[in-house]
Amino acid sequence: MGSGHDHHHASVSNAAQQHRGRLWVAFGLLATLMVVEAVAALHTGSLALLSDAGHMFTDVLGIGMALAAITATQRAARDPQRTFGLYRLEVLAALANAVLLSGVAIYVLIEAIGRFGDPHEVVVGAMLVVAVLGLLANVVAFALLRAGARDSINLQGAYLEVLGDLLGSLGVIGAALLIAVTDWWWADPLVAVAIGVFILPRTWRLGRAAVRILVQAAPEHLQVTAVHDRLAAVPGVVEVHDLHVWTLTSGMDVASAHLTMAPDAEVGTVLTAARTALQEEFRIEHATLQIEPGAAPGACGAVTW
């Protein structure tokens, strides 16, 4: 006998849906400044400015993928063949952001190391003006994305990229001022290295979080043994097996389990108590629970995977 929730969450991420308009504003603003910074980097010869433009490119791409994931998920919700929708799209987008940003950071680090031996002169005035514009754009984008970053791994990826880019713009401004005052050309590659070193660890943490979801590992904030023990403590349950807990997408933890009931237990009462425990104590809103009334423990057979 089986039973479980027959409803799905209405959207891949409430945060992403609620902040969709802000995403579009941030996307347009950063896309414009990205082009300006890239052109200015070629004109001024500034590696720090090129690093900032590269990071801004991943900002734009990340936000674009977030918007694409929201749109695709809404359409998939109407497709009966996609029983879980396209919730994983935002996780894939976050992983792609992490890979792209890591690639940009590593490239800039390699280029910067080469420039320490042969520092290039840069056009300081243009470098400073564009860096200030980039800073203003990133401050606006940072404010737009901050609220949703706590609830969506995809928005968190875009938020981290904008945060790194904001600090990068500050670094470019500092390098431009230092060069203008002292003619110390090493400031440009030094700032480029600092930007890469700052953002890489955060990018890898984001990638690790996305991979954990994709391999269906249990959420880090949940102990599977605690879930097992709580279900086993439900009145009328004599044994719990085949328990699986995983994350479908940001803020959407799901579980499945087989519950062996005592012969005198009532199915509806056991199911209600088990679901309530999962929702209230572990925030698991979607659980598929198979009931085995009066069966011997493990009677349904062992699952090899």
TrEMBL record:
Membrane topology: Multi-pass membrane protein
Gene3D superfamilies: Cation efflux protein transmembrane domain
Record PANTHER family: CATION EFFLUX PROTEIN/ ZINC TRANSPORTER, RE54080P-RELATED
SUPFAM superfamilies: Cation efflux protein cytoplasmic domain-like, Cation efflux protein transmembrane domain-like
Bilayer-spanning residue ranges: 23-44, 56-77, 89-110, 122-145, 157-179, 185-204
Entry's localization field: Membrane
Source taxon at top rank: Bacteria
Record GO cellular component, one term: plasma membrane
All residue ranges annotated as the Cation efflux protein cytoplasmic domain in the record: 220-293
Main subcellular localisation: membrane
Family per similarity comment: Belongs to the cation diffusion facilitator (CDF) transporter (TC 2.A.4) family. SLC30A subfamily.
A Pfam family hit: Cation_efflux
Protein name: Cation diffusion facilitator family transporter
Keywords of this entry: Ion transport, Membrane, Transmembrane, Transmembrane helix, Transport
GO MF term (any one): zinc ion transmembrane transporter activity
Organism name: Micromonospora profundi
InterPro entries on file: Cation_efflux, Cation_efflux_CTD, Cation_efflux_CTD_sf, Cation_efflux_TM, Cation_efflux_TMD_sf, CDF/SLC30A
Domain Cation efflux protein transmembrane: 23-215
